[in-house]
Write a structure and sequence with these properties.
The structure holds two protein chains of two kinds. Chain A is built from 14 helices and 15 strands. By secondary structure, chain A is an alpha/beta fold. In chain A, strands 7-6-8-9-10-14-15 form a seven-stranded mixed sheet, sandwiched between helices. Chain A has a five-stranded parallel sheet with strand order 2-1-3-4-5, with helices on both faces. The chains are: A alpha/beta, B mainly alpha.
């Protein structure tokens, strides 16, 4: 290797130094916003950023946290674990964030949990719903205000069996989130006397779902339960509708199946769709209405389930004020069991054992492109027992039980 | 290898060894430097195929991913010895590379590229759908490997020096190979495969040989990755990753060995920095690549030979 070839190598490494400018003299505390900013889950990532932004603006207007102005650093994780880990490391080790919110995809969030555990940073999840986060992957610094698969299954499965039909086909997106939803809903439905007549998984970002439609039609279910999200859901519903399957079967899905903003565009395929979620701008709950009015005033659009990221910032800020420090260990301890009255749905408390926020849930049905509430399920009834370190569906099998 | 080359390499190695002492080198930058050197080493090993033999592999991500999975599986099962992880990677990648190279080297040009791509997609799909290896989420949360019992490679600094040693050994291997009779035959194959065959060389065997060396170096690089990242996922084997490796080689300069290292470093740093500011960062990277291909056909290493627009238009 000649000396002149060394120059570009050293120059390239020196580029690494860009952005390593000394911190401003102004007292600032940084928080990290990690999520999908493009691709299949783009909408969730963008609304997560907006919810965080709203919380930060409100807190900064009141003087910030511990006299520090809060600054948001947003990063795109490309909906993949490898970039998510790299960006989480950047946020923690380079930007020195004291709170990390994200990611959007469960696969990415699971990978990021190892990073926040290793570097001891408060980590809030406000949308990923794989079940392992508050069980086998749980760690001291991890908190969640997203209803996970178990909470959703507990709340929705009974409604499906009682009101929609006993024969259910489970169609899920084949990665951490969808698999988790599939496992939990199959378990819950069978426990409640439902008959799971078929299960199938389609890869994330599938463009054409029609190869799976034959099996669904052959199983002839009463209810088609779908565990997809983002643009996958949009494509799936459009294709199901064009095959006449939205009229043939009753449809139910997970809370993040589609954001409220997506519904008007596919109002017809979504008509009658049932899901369980913690928020809808069409819920007349006064706390939701008050939050939605503020959100709409700020961003010119309705809020959606990503509003949980707003609460994450509030919980962290309240805990920091309580202990008078940004120390992650002390904040984690302060957050355990903490209750706040001013969240996007009113009073909420964090369960000490598994750091899950106990949230009242609502069953919604889509009518005319709007998510309208049809029932409420108390948070204590859907959250289930703490299972830290345990497999919540131990002994689970995808095998379809034949009924005579 | 001339004394001057060795002296230059020693100076470069010393400079890179001193990088952690730079005042701005935080843990994050050490991790970034790890990635930069690791992918630089992979690009260099791919250069053996593209730059020296004229074979464009669109499947190198599979060698990288298989190496990563070999280590991740060992670490997940509490087999933490780095040497056992590396041995597992060499065996797994070696067997796969034998299979791929046996079939792919029987063809040339676009057919070689397509065969490597198809094999890689099969491997990707296998890991993507096999729950034993974690399916689409892969194997996550693996512990650090150990250099010796009790000596865990658990800090960014230790991992940086590990990858630096690997880069040095990989360069030495590649440099020795291309400087040997074997390397000269590879260049002959690149320039005129039929003539090389008429001269009596078993071209297929030479191509298989260089494929194996390139694949094993990439596989060993992959084996080092979970120690730094804590996971191995199918995404590491996606065809787009193979495409990135090719871009690194082209940015750095084909057939130069050191050029692709620079290309790898440049690509990783550019990707990391630009993606923090622009969502569609691949447009920026694509633009940089277009400019380099058009005006710096020798890559970054040939930066002294920047062409003018008129020269480019005239095809000189």
């Amino acid at each position: 290797m000649r000396a002149k070839t060394l120059v570009p190598v050293v120059l390239a490494l020196a580029v690494i130094a860009l952005g390593a400018a000394p911190a401003s003299a102004q007292k600032v505390v940084k928080i990290g916003d990690l999520g999908s900013k493009v691709g299949v889950f783009e909408g969730y990532g963008k609304y997560q950023t907006m919810a965080i932004q709203m919380a930060v603006e409100e807190l900064n207007a009141k003087g910030g946290v511990l006299g520090h102005k809060i600054e948001i650093i947003s990063e795109d994780d490309e909906t993949k674990p490898a970039p998510a880990v790299r960006k989480a490391e950047k946020l923690i080790l380079q930007d020195d964030v004291k709170l990390l919110i994200g990611a959007v995809s469960s696969g990415s969030t699971l990978a990021v949990m190892d990073v926040t555990k290793k570097h001891k940073v408060i980590h809030w999840n406000s949308v990923s719903c794989a079940e392992f986060m508050r069980t086998t992957k749980f760690h001291k610094y991890y908190f969640s205000n997203q209803p996970d698969s178990r909470m959703q299954a507990t709340g929705l499965a009974k409604y499906i069996v009682d009101k929609m039909g006993k024969k259910v086909y489970i169609f899920y997106t084949d990665y951490a989130m969808g698999q988790s939803d599939g496992r939990q809903f199959k378990t819950a439905l069978e426990k409640l006397g439902g008959d799971v007549v078929g299960v199938a998984g389609a890869p994330l970002d599938t463009k054409d779902f029609s190869p799976w439609f034959g099996a669904i039609n052959q199983a002839n279910p009463d209810v088609l339960f779908v565990a997809f999200a983002g643009t996958d859901s949009l494509r799936l519903m459009t294709q199901l509708h064009s095959f006449g399957m939205t009229r043939k079967y009753k449809l139910a899905g997970i809370d993040c199946f589609l954001l409220q903003q997506d519904l008007p565009a596919i109002a017809e395929p979504m008509e009658g769709f049932v899901q369980l979620a913690h928020f809808s701008p069409y819920n007349q709950d006064k706390n939701m209405q008050a939050f939605n009015a503020r959100f709409k005033k700020r961003f010119g659009t309705d809020a959606n389930i990503m509003a949980g990221a707003y609460d994450a910032v509030l919980f962290w800020a309240a805990a920091a004020e309580k202990v008078g420090s940004f120390d992650a260990d002390r904040i984690a301890e302060a957050q355990e069991g903490m209750c706040l009255d001013n969240t996007h749905i009113g009073r909420q408390c964090i369960r000490k054992e598994d750091h899950q926020v106990v949230m009242d849930m609502h069953l919604y049905q889509v009518k005319g492109g709007k998510n309208l509430p049809i029932a409420t399920i108390a948070g204590k009834d859907s959250i289930g027992e703490p299972m830290v370190g345990k497999d919540p569906v131990e002994g689970f099998t995808w095998e379809i039980k034949k009924k005579n | 290898m001339s004394n001057r080359t060795l002296a230059g390499a020693a100076v470069a190695l010393a400079a890179l060894a001193a990088v952690p002492a730079l005042p701005f080198m935080s843990k994050y930058y050490l991790l970034l430097a790890f990635d930069a050197l690791l992918f630089g080493a992979i690009a260099m090993s791919l250069d053996l195929l593209i730059g020296y033999t004229g074979l464009v592999s669109f499947g190198h991500a599979a060698f990288f991913g298989l190496g990563a999975y070999a280590t991740a599986v060992c670490l997940e099962r509490k087999i933490v010895s780095l040497w056992i992880c590396l041995a597992a990677a060499v065996v797994v990648v070696g067997l796969y590379a034998l299979l791929v190279s046996y079939f792919a080297t029987a063809r040339r040009g676009i057919y070689f590229a397509l065969l490597t791509l198809i094999f890689a997609e099969v491997v990707y799909t296998f890991f993507r759908y096999t729950q034993t290896f974690g399916g689409s989420d892969g194997i996550q949360g693996v512990p650090a490997a150990e250099l010796a019992p009790g000596v865990a490679l658990d800090t960014p600094l230790k991992n940086y020096y590990l990858v630096l040693v690997f880069l040095a050994l990989a360069w030495l291997t590649c440099r020795t190979l291309v400087g040997s009779h074997f390397g000269r035959v590879l260049v002959a194959i690149r320039e005129n495969e039929d003539r090389a065959r008429f001269l009596g060389y078993n071209v297929t065997r030479y191509k298989m040989g260089v494929c194996l060396v390139s694949a094993l170096l990439t596989g060993v690089a992959g084996a080092l990755y979970p120690g730094r990242s804590g996971f191995a996922t199918p995404d590491l084997m996606l065809w787009t990753v193979s495409g990135e490796f090719i871009i690194m080689v082209m940015i750095g300069g084909l057939g130069t060995l050191v050029g692709p290292v620079i290309g790898g470093v440049f690509f990783v740093v550019l990707q990391e920095k630009v993606s923090s500011y622009v969502d569609w960062y691949f447009i920026v990277i694509g633009l940089v690549l277009v400019l380099i291909v058009l005006f710096m056909p020798k890559g970054l290493l040939g930066f002294r030979r920047v062409q003018g627009f008129a020269q480019w238009r005239s095809g000189q």
